[in-house]
Amino acid sequence: MGLPIVAIIGRPNVGKSTIVNRLAGGKDAIVYDEPGITRDRTYRPAYWRDREFLVVDTGGLVFDDDTEFLPLIREQAIAALKESKVAIFVVDGQAGPTSGDQEIASWLRQQQVPVFLVVNKCESPEQGTIQAAQFWELGIGEPFPVSGIHGSGVGDLLDEVVQHLPPTDDTEEIRETNVAIVGRPNVGKSSLLNAFLGENRAIVSPISGTTRDAIDTVVERDGKTYRLIDTAGIRKKKGVEYGPEFFGINRAFKAIRRADVVLLVIDALDGATEQDQKLAGRIAEEGRACVIVVNKWDAVEKDSYTLNEYERQLKNRLYFLEWAETIFVSALTGQRVAKILDLVDTAAEQHQRRVTTSVINEVLEEAISWHSPPTNRQGRQGKIYYGTQVRSQPPTITLFVNDPKRFNENYRRYIERQFRTALGFTGTPIRLFWRGKKSREVELGSGANRAVRV
């Protein structure tokens, strides 16, 4: 990953995610008063003084319980520690030392990495020293009393931590392509992430809702860098209660907004559902580039017509994303998984693409010659004077016309199709603004169909 890594370790519900948010200067990690919220290992960028590093949040460690996700959480925490330069062992100052803390301390003493003992929830400066003193018995070293909520004591901790981190390299920042992996629960998003990496980076389970946070992973291929963001499964809103799943879904929506390209993962056995349609609409509304990934294709019985028929039905259902490329894969076998990033490259390039005004007007001239603008009942015809691209990500074109009202929806869609036919824009939405003499604009394109006054 380039930057040195600092692992946050501890038993459940001691405030590890609160510490992560404090170190990373944000609220990305889900914080909720319930054990087991964090399951996978999640990375957040952070810096202190002249050092930049990554903070990796891990699930709560429990060594004497093998139920549900706990063995998998242990695997993730152990993997995080192996790649880290420093470990921060978080304990609960209000609860005092526990047998669980003793077990983790015994394990950490056997690891070849510097460990800092952080006594969290020391909200009172007067009581903090007394609370921290109890933890000398763990044999890890000096306890640092801190408050993850208020931030007290964190600066002193970081002063010590960064002494074990190498200086930050001042080389030019590498351009990353942000790729969000979204879909309904249990369609194989985490399996797909692991197939990309060739390792168990994310916990995979047949239980819906295994992934609760948005998990960032950096991958390099052929000199290009990708930030893959695995997200929580998005269910129907009425089925989601306030709590961990609610926060996880909000993180998924934020991941869509910060993505350059979204991988919409569809379960091949279920086909495109109503919830998939809503997700498709959300992606188009946010103006994100997209690749539709049909997973579990190995489990579908096929004949010579299956692929074409399936793709036709899929496009009919996901009409918001009619411009997106579709790929049929199996995360289980690895079938065609490597080709996904080729489609991501194309979609990202087109999403950032800019076209000169002269080329846009050549396309318009050709389109009008084949199909003239409509005429209203009063005999007044629409006129397109010229067009120009005003933005990218997604490509946005303003068309200057005599009156936007004279262009019906069919003609606007015709113009958009002509742009796609002539210029491509594969894998990305495009937006058209129709601007009249009275500064009235109508936006149309790729799922958007609403009037905007300026």
Automatic annotation (TrEMBL):
Q: Does the keyword GTP-binding apply?
A: yes
- GO terms classed as biological process: ribosome biogenesis
Under InterPro entries, the record lists: AAA+_ATPase, G_ENGA, GTP-bd, GTPase_Der, KH_dom-like, KH_dom-like_a/b, P-loop_NTPase, Small_GTP-bd
Domain EngA-type G span(s) in chain numbering: 4-169, 177-352
The record's annotation in Pfam families points to:
KH_dom-like, MMR_HSR1
Keywords from the named record: GTP-binding, Nucleotide-binding, Repeat, Ribosome biogenesis
Q: Please tell me whether the keyword Zinc is annotated for this protein.
A: no
Binding residues annotated for GTP 2, in chain numbering: 183-190, 230-234, 295-298
Q: Which domain of life is it from?
A: Bacteria
Positions bound to GTP 1: 10-17, 57-61, 120-123
Q: Which family does it belong to?
A: Belongs to the TRAFAC class TrmE-Era-EngA-EngB-Septin-like GTPase superfamily. EngA (Der) GTPase family.
As for what it does, the entry says: GTPase that plays an essential role in the late steps of ribosome biogenesis.
What name does this protein carry? GTPase Der
Q: Supply the gene name.
A: der
